[in-house]
Design goal:
The chain is built from 10 helices and 16 strands. It is an alpha/beta fold and about 300 residues long. The radius of gyration is 19 Å and the shape is globular. The structure holds NADP nicotinamide-adenine-dinucleotide phosphate (NAP).
């Protein structure tokens, strides 16, 4: 048997728990993976809340992004071997907060030795989203990128990518995150009432692109900082972004490989701010669900 962290009913965190299940067996095209680390994302609690529908069979394994070691190679898989460290998004329904899970070979990649399992576990969802959010509309060096929610998992990596591209990144976050946002090279602007005016103080002509990682009223307040509303991209709230004339952030297949190379060469640090054990997965999810995480939260699972 093998442990997996699940929720047993849609709603709050009270039905989350660690249960035993048979070790998942890979189907054709899949890899069985012994999990070494799993990144925690807002989508984990959002699925549990039922906001994306209630079709998921229960109990529902939690967690989407993983790094681990291949234990079994499914039929028809080329290019991966037992014992190889990999990273990737998990096969839906199997969960990343687990001792063992499944990853589709077509969506997996070899984990570079330079990148720890803990950092690698932040790549398939968070780092890849930061990559896509900074490449969907490409800016020229010196242009201004406003990141709303700059101190979180995606935001800190997006700010660092902005630096790689020689953009003028402006990071909006709560005052406690000033130092960490500035460490990326971004200009820090405190969130809250009047944020738009504060951004204008550092960027009098407004900005060239808004990458929204918060949504709702926070997005509405800064939307006027771009002359052209199509230059609003939202990972957090596509509905509000579209209403304002912007677009949803579109995920691409190549992002994971591209950002892995950037992390491998130490140009972007996933900024893991806290690690938890699988037994404490509920605390890890809660640290993201409170809405004010700094960088990435990761669950580590000891190797055999
Ligand atoms: N579409 C996709 O494929 C995709 C993929 C990944 C993530 N997402 C979404 O993108 C969003 C960000 O993800 P994440 O992993 O970076 O989340 P996260 O780690 O929880 O970070 C969110 C950040 O937003 C900040 N924040 C909250 N209210 C704010 C406000 N009014 N102004 C400025 N900052 C504020 C929070 O801290 P402070 O308030 O303390 O600054 C926190 O640091 C989430 O909605 C997530 O679901 C979408």
């Amino acid at each position: 048997m093998s442990k997996v962290y699940v929720f047993t009913a849609f709603g709050g965190p009270e039905t989350q728990r660690l249960i035993d299940r048979p070790v998942p067996e890979p189907g054709p095209g899949e890899l069985a993976v012994q999990v070494r680390a799993a990144g925690v994302n807002p989508v984990d609690w959002k699925i549990r809340s039922g906001r994306y529908g209630k079709q998921t069979p229960l109990p529902a394994p939690m967690g989407q992004e993983v790094a681990g070691v291949v234990t079994v190679v499914g039929d028809g898989v080329d290019g991966f071997a037992v014992g190889e460290p990999i990273l990737g998004p998990v096969v839906p329904g199997y969960g990343a907060f687990a001792e063992d899970t499944l990853v589709r070979a077509a969506e997996a990649m070899a984990k570079p030795a330079e990148i720890s399992f803990t950092d690698a576990a932040t790549i398939p969802v968070a780092a890849a989203t930061a990559y896509d959010g900074t490449h969907q509309i490409e800016l020229e060096p010196g242009q201004r990128l406003l990141i709303l929610g700059a101190g979180g998992g995606v935001g800190l990596m997006a700010a660092q990518i902005g630096k790689v591209h020689q953009l003028t990144a402006i990071g909006v976050a709560s005052p406690a995150k000033r130092e960490v946002v500035e460490s990326t090279g971004a200009t820090f602007v405190p969130s809250g009432d009047g944020v738009s005016d504060r951004v204008r103080q550092v960027a009098p002509g407004g900005v060239d692109l808004i990458l929204d990682l918060v949504g709702g009223d926070a997005l509405r307040e800064v939307a006027g900082l771009v002359d052209d509303p199509t230059r609003i991209i939202s990972a957090a709230d596509p509905g509000t972004a579209t209403e304002l004339g912007g677009t949803a952030l579109h995920r691409t297949a190549e992002a994971m490989e591209k950002i892995t190379a950037v992390i491998e060469y130490h140009l972007v640090d996933p900024h893991v701010s806290a690690v938890y054990s699988l037994q404490d997965a509920g605390e890890a999810i809660g640290a993201v669900e409170n809405g004010h995480a700094t960088g990435k939260i990761v669950i580590e699972v000891p190797g055999a």
